[in-house]
Amino acid sequence: MKLGVFAVLFSKMSLEEMLDYVKKSGLNTIEIGTGGYVGNAHCDPKELLADESKLEKFMQAFESRGIEISALSCHGNSLHPNEEIATEHHEAFVNTVKLAAKLGVENVVTFSGCPGESDYSKHPVWITCPWPDDFSTVVEWQWENKVIPYWKKQTELLDEYNVRAAIEPHPGFVVYNTETILRLRSECGEKIGANFDPSHYFWQGMDPVNSIRALGDALFHFHAKDTRIDSQNNSLNGVLDTKSYRDIANRSWVFRTVGYGHGEDVWRDIISALQTIEYQGAVSIEHEDGLMGVNEGFTKAVSFLKDILIEDGAKDLWWA
């Protein structure tokens, strides 16, 4: 495994400034944002695909520093009922897949998307319970009429360019847990897998270690981010919390830098689970901690993870 970072943390820096800063921090692996909700501050796929000289300059910026791109990420909702948003996010995904092929990058990270409850919806509708029966009917309609047809079509694109889609399970989208990502993969093919973010699993009360083992080779890419559950607020209100992320004192849970939601033992178990399934990709640091700045969160995450990361694993066991 290789320790890396999701570069949207440093969107205010130029590409060169960001690469130099990451390199100075001792990392050689970077995930780049290419559109959708995360923006494209360092990489505009449409622009690079249209201009070979710009593409060559972009590639050289990484090669000259010995930095590898672990993934191109365009987290979006291509199933959005608003056609303008859906089109924008779909085009970002298509262009990102094409650029990934040119760069030799295996993974494109995004969300599954979430449609509305019908063809007349204006906003996405995420269902959290099966009853009244209307809710179950909506879930079935979403999967059969929107989700599966869309991702089957995208699998053709992924096959054409030999790129994988690492879908990030996240509440608010139809793929939000272990069984929904495995369902999408079962329905649409093995070019579909997971971008695994433990913070989303902690948030929902799942066990990241068990989920990692259940995913196995369907786990394509990994985000290093933590969640702290507020025991008092959670005991009163549960994890379905729609309050602002800024309202930290009253929320049931908040995103934290790794080690600030769960201790070293938990993260050692997570890294060991990745090793158990023979994951050899990036451990990509993501920062959404409202209690510390970007640079502080990043440097603390690097220090914490360097101590527990298993880079090679056992190769020759003398007793085996």
Automatic annotation (TrEMBL):
Keywords: Isomerase. GO terms for molecular function: isomerase activity. It comes from the Bacteria. The keyword Isomerase applies. It comes from Lederbergia lenta (Bacillus lentus). Residues 19-307 form the Xylose isomerase-like TIM barrel domain. The keyword Isomerase applies. InterPro entries: IolE/XylAMocC-like, Xyl_isomerase-like_sf, Xyl_isomerase-like_TIM-brl. This is Sugar phosphate isomerase/epimerase. Gene3D superfamilies: Divalent-metal-dependent TIM barrel enzymes (3.20.20.150).
